[in-house]
Amino acid sequence: MLKLKRAFAIGIMSLVPFAAYAAPAFKAPFACGQTWSYSTYSGHNYNALDWVRWDNGPTSGAAVLASAGGTVSVSSVGWNGGAGNMVVINHGNGWSTHYFHLNSINVNVGASIGQGHQIGTVGSTGQSTGAHLHFEQRLNNSAQSIVINGKSLAPYPYSYGQKALTSDNGCSGTTPPPPPTGNKYWVDTWGDANGRSSPGGTVTGTLYKGTHYTYCKVWGPKIQNATGTQWNHWWLKTDLDVGPTNQWVSAFMLSRWGNDEAKDNNGTVIPNCP
């Protein structure tokens, strides 16, 4: 149904129809290159999909990414009416995405996040019989046909394995644009990292596991694993998820590169800080 708005011109009031706001450019809520199978079931909200990993990777504990950029409106741990640990992202103009049954949550209410930002991990909390992600796209809180990369996934199968989708969320060229000033380099981190006031200095906050931007790098104190087989001397200047801006995180946390490497997701060497 078309909505109506009032238009006034030369003292005459008329009713002018306008189309509903266009949806954001939604992507699959999983990491680049991963393949997931989806289904619904009788009694389920038809426009809600359950997802499980379908490329021999683990479902439980897999990263859940924001399908589109927005503001976190719900970040709740608990039963939540059967939804379990849940996150809701408000994308504006009435659109929101809903992520249920999470194992862990990485974002807080009020956080402004980009498409591809990790919001949590897949679990089986709430009314769930096995690890999966329950995912919805809503307009004015009404569930809509699930659309990924501009294409509707309906009609939905009623069992896993009949239909699957490979994610391009976070792939090269599809990450969200960097903040508006300065040169930024996108990197993926494999775990939550301590942010520090200086390389190896006082802990000032946290950079959550996921995709982030960094400004530049400096050589500093060595960070290594317990066995000494992995290490990194480089420290990256970045803005924390929790804590102040312009802080330092060890390049040891980069998920794509090895010892004493500090490159962005495209393989570009991050420049030295001035």
UniProtKB/TrEMBL annotation:
Location of the M23ase beta-sheet core domain: 59-143
Signal peptide start and end residues: 1-22
UniProt cross-references to Gene3D superfamilies, sorted A to Z: Glucose Permease (Domain IIA)
GO-annotated molecular function: metalloendopeptidase activity
Keywords from the named record: Signal
InterPro entries the record matches: Cell_wall_metabolism_enzyme, Dup_hybrid_motif, M23ase_b-sheet_dom
Superkingdom as given in the UniProt entry: Bacteria
Name of the featured protein: M23 family metallopeptidase
Organism from which the protein derives: Acinetobacter halotolerans
Taxonomic path: Bacteria, Pseudomonadati, Pseudomonadota, Gammaproteobacteria, Moraxellales
